[in-house]
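dumping this here so i dont lose it
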């Protein structure tokens, strides 16, 4: 966990923080309910822009304490000590990237789906395996150049994650790619690559270095939105639905 803290203090890490906090706030601001859960990485508080009254943080044994979350506990993410269908919103900030292997990642996602209320929402962020940052990391593991991402990060193919979502009854309805910058080490180097965001959004939208996926827990019907959600007898209040392409993600709009 020290590695991810060190990474977030780098220019690339600051891009991750800024982009994911902004996009998560936009996607989650109208998600309502009683309890929201974040699995790990308190340095990246994806719940900050959400208005659910209770924000709960699950910490792994390796992570430092996070007093910024008044409600928190330690647990293995593959076996959460929470009741089934007890959370209105679950967010996983790079949780699958650091699961260790595909089986642990799949079980973590299964647990997140288990504790999620019917028609609840799940938001996941991950490093894109085909992004330039991870390509540089692969070269490093092959003995070429220095590390760029945290050594413990093992990004999973997005197609595989999409399949897991489908098997768990999680219907993807929103998605973003972002941070197209080349893997520069310095702030000036990152800024010189800022043009790649507009170009990437237009010409190679699926090659952003970060992916954000939002899905609804499917129960024989679409997510409830707006006034319909408030008139429903169910506890969960879901955000609006945005159609997406077959990939399960839509490209991010270019931003200044």
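and the seq i came up w/
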């Amino acid at each position: 966990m020290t590695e991810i803290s060190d990474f977030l203090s780098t220019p690339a890490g600051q891009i991750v923080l800024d982009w994911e906090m902004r996009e998560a706030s936009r996607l989650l601001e109208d998600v309502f309910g009683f309890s929201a859960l974040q699995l790990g990485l308190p340095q990246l508080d994806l719940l900050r822009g959400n208005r659910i009254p209770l924000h709960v943080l699950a910490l792994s044994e390796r992570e430092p304490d996070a007093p910024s979350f008044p409600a928190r506990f330690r647990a293995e993410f593959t076996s959460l000590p929470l009741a089934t269908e007890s959370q209105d919103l679950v967010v996983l900030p790079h949780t699958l990237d650091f699961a260790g292997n595909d089986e642990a990642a799949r079980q973590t996602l299964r647990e997140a789906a288990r504790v999620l209320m019917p028609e609840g929402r799940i938001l996941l962020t991950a490093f894109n395996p085909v992004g330039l940052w991870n390509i540089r990391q692969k070269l490093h593991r092959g003995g070429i150049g220095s590390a760029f991402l945290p050594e413990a990060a093992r990004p999973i193919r997005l197609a595989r994650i999409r399949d897991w979502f489908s098997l768990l009854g999680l219907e993807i309805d929103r998605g973003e790619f972002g941070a197209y910058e080349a893997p520069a080490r310095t702030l000036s180097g990152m800024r010189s690559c800022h043009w790649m965001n507009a170009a990437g959004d237009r010409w190679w939208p699926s090659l952003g270095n970060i992916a954000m996926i939002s899905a609804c827990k499917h129960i024989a019907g679409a997510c409830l939105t707006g006034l319909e959600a408030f008139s429903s007898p169910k506890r969960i209040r879901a955000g609006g639905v945005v159609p997406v392409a077959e990939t399960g993600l839509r490209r991010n709009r270019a931003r200044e």
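The mean pLDDT is 83.
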